[in-house]
Amino acid sequence: MSTTYKKCLVLILVNGLLLLVVFHAWSPRTSSPVDIWQRQGRPVKTLLNAKIISGNQDIAYHIKEDVACRLAQNTCVCEADKETFHLPFSNLLFPHVWAHNLEVAFLESHPDPEGIKRRRAQEYTSFRRRSYSPADAFIVAEANSPLQYPTQGVEVRPLKTIIIPGLGVKEKTRSNHTVYLTASLGTFDVAATVDGVSIKGEGQRHMTLSSPLLSALNRQLQFVTYTNTMFHPRTADTVQFGTEGHQSFFTIKVGHGAMPKLYNSGYQTEYNISALVTIATKTFLRYDKLKDLIDSIRQYYPTVTIVIADDNEHPQPVTGPYIDHYIMPFRKGWFAGRNLAVSQVTTKYVLWADDDFIFTANTKLEKMVDILEKTTLDLVGGAVREVTGYTATYRHTISVEEGGEDGDCIHIRKGYHHVIEGFPNCVVADGVINFFMARTDKVQQGFDPRLARQGHLEFFLDTLGSLHIGSCSDIIVNHASKIKLPWSRTDSQKAYEKYRYSSSSSNIHNEIFYFKHRFKCMTSV
Predict the structure, then answer these.
(1) CB within 8 A of 55, min separation 6: which ones?
(2) Mean pLDDT comparison of 40-49, 145-154, 287-296, highest-scoring range
(3) pLDDT per residue over 27-40, tens digit each?
(4) DSSP SS3 for 245
(5) Number of neighbouring beta carbons within 10 Å of residue 207
(6) Chosen CATH of 273-524 out of 3.40.50.720, 3.90.550.10, 2.60.200.40, 1.10.8.60
(7) What global pTM score does this model have?
(8) Quick count: other Cβ atoms within 10 Å of Cβ 217?
């Protein structure tokens, strides 16, 4: 076989593999759009959680494997996929799950591993105490109970009084009908009395009502009140409601109502971006890149306020209209800069952009505002286009699996949950690219100031469960070129790379995952 023939054969194989990689990367995902548009008066759907009830132990049953295997086991393990074969680009074609044992990574270099484990356990116990609510308890309303009562949706403000709706009794006629109510954080009374009904314990935590007429008793139950007597900004009282031979439980939520945070942006039919959005960024050793960012913003949004957090050792003036430049201590850090910048935002929305981004005609902030205004999303990310033409969205889903006393497991996967109805280029995810717009009051959390030069996933872990996040591929910002010839790098570029890619803070990340979030393992693709 000639040398030329061998070279051609190798070239054909390589090209074939590259085509497969491109096909795999660009294959469109099929996903049904989901409606998350805001609607007035939309009914709240009741979610029923199936639980196994004790009793009837002698009745045989058959496990349905395809359903049972999806049930939470609460025994997560730190396991990576095993590679069965090795081929060029095999990881791109068939990505495998890797696993990082956070317990080993963090504790092996810690001077007091047992002490840190004890402190983590104490902190977790304290967290459980602070976050526990009686409303979280699982309570079954037995089907054979004659009692009628509200199962959810009853709320009272601290130290205020309400009528308890939905109370009633449905039972056979007898000589006397009696019911009782018992609470721990409040007292009962009646807003009106009904003839023929006897009431004991008015103004007390235990009240009894009785009558020979069931209709009179049910009428009296329509006037039963509950008064909260123990102040707490957010808790719940578990009320016991019973009669002879039957008892039930329901919760009354106690707490202040959520305070609205309204922004008077002044727009009527069109979005006033300058009144709605502030652009925030953090800069370090890249004033040339920062200038390019500002110039590109001003080309499309000349009056939008730009807030700059700067932790350079020798700060340079950054001036101009609608620019707020804040100087920080040297090397204070990226997330500390985010905290500072976002804390100075007074508009409804804040757009985060790195200092080496460049706005283009495709960087449509109006689209981001539109989706945030019309949906329940708190944050929407865009896409970043590299100088090579590659456009990234960094869409990920994140899930936490309970793992017992040693901690939980965090699983990160590329992809998204579903398409957003009405916005075909937008999806819902748990993590997005580092170019996003968010509701200012909702995003003022999650920026751990210990993360100095690296950190992105950590923000989305901090806000997991509190932020509703989307990503749109048709809102694009350009990324300044990172391609630099070795002999053309400036002293500032060399210094930036030294700080940016330093490995000295790697254990901070392990500590955040292991101790702060109580993870024992992380898996990702």
Answers:
(1) none
(2) 287-296
(3) 444 556 766 565 54
(4) coil
(5) 22
(6) 3.90.550.10
(7) 0.79
(8) 24
